[in-house]
Amino acid sequence: MEADLMLHEGEEKSTLWSFLHRHAASSPAPAPAMPGRALDIRGLSFSYGQHGVLDDISLSVKPGEICGLLGPNGCGKSTLFRCCMGFLHPQKGHVRVHGVNIAHMKPSALAAHVAYVPQEHRQPFPFSARDMVLMGRSPKMAGWFRLRRDDERIAEEAMARIGILHLAERPCNQLSGGQRQLVLIARAMAQQTPLVLLDEPTSSLDFSNQLSVWNVLREVASQGVAVLVCCHDPNHILWFCDKAAVMHQGRICAEGPSAEVVTQELLQHIYGPQCLRLGTGRASMVCPSLGRD
User: Which secondary-structure segment (H or E) carries 60?
Assistant: First the structure.
């Protein structure tokens, strides 16, 4: 894959945009939607009242690809996810899933195409973990929660893949935050959609479970599923994602193969001079400069 570092004009006063101007060629205007893309976002802008959050966002994810979305707090990552799910309606631009504008899709149709794992979810009702995972099968059921044997098998397999079979009968409102997150990921896997969106899926997990979830995502992508993951850890982007998209001040400032996009220079311009990148390619690691000799 060739790196596609994209520069947006009119931001010369920003240090980051000046940096990108020196290191990246200008990009042409966004191309029309590509029917072969699982997710195709074009010219998306969104504001909360007078407060602009997203500004002319264009991003695509192909089947079988894991794209990691990286950026500082408040840059608009979660808002972009909500627009992709139809929870928020952009003022400009559109989101297409397999060539279809989601504005023209019923919620049931969208749920058959896109699975979503939110950043945080608190379940007030004492649904068991098994029932929560089975809810991922609802877009494929013939009637209201009319379970088939296949639905139960798929839910069971999803829980086994994520490693939570031992939690199957536990009420979700009695689980820890990390355990609830694993249940939501298993529900998304049981949904069996061609596109999966995950908003910081491993933020509340221990290291072992983080690696398990990423390995499952790699396995899912190898079966032709497109995956877009919002992640705060640049190491996870480098190690597990095929492609990286970096957001800053409501825009995509860089996009391309992870090893080429997540550079020390870019990280330092976004997060500060304390960021160091050691090694090359997937063997790289981002670590802090501790200011010691």
Answer: strand 51-61
122 vs 58, more confident: 58
Question: How far from 12 is each of 24, 26, 247, 254, CA to CA, in Å?
Answer: 14, 13, 17, 16
Domain that holds residue 35: 1-98+195-201+224-293
Residue 44 pairs with which residues in a beta bridge?
57
Q: CB-based burial of residue 136 (10 Å sphere; 0-12 exposed, 13-18 middle, 19+ buried)?
A: buried
Q: Is residue 240 part of a domain?
A: yes
Residue 272 belongs to domain with CATH number: 3.40.50.300
132/154 Cα distance (integer angstroms): 13
Read off the amino acid at residue 180. R
Q: Per the structure, how many domains does the chain have?
A: 1
Q: φ, ψ for residue 197 (rounded to 5)?
A: -115, 130
Give the pTM: 0.82
Task: Tell me the per-residue pLDDT of 225-270, one tens digit each, with 9 for 90 and over.
Answer: 999 999 999 999 999 999 999 999 899 999 999 999 999 999 998 8
Establish if 80 belongs to a structural domain. yes
> How many CB atoms neighbour CB 137 within 10 A?
22
Nearest one of 126, 132, 238 to 184, comparing CA atoms: 132
Handedness of CA 227, 115, 149, 131 (dihedral sign): positive
pLDDT tens string 25-36? 333 333 344 457
Do residues 68 and 199 make contact, with C-beta atoms less than 8 angstroms apart?
A: no
pLDDT (mean) for 72-86: 91
Distance CA 271, CA 206 (A): 24
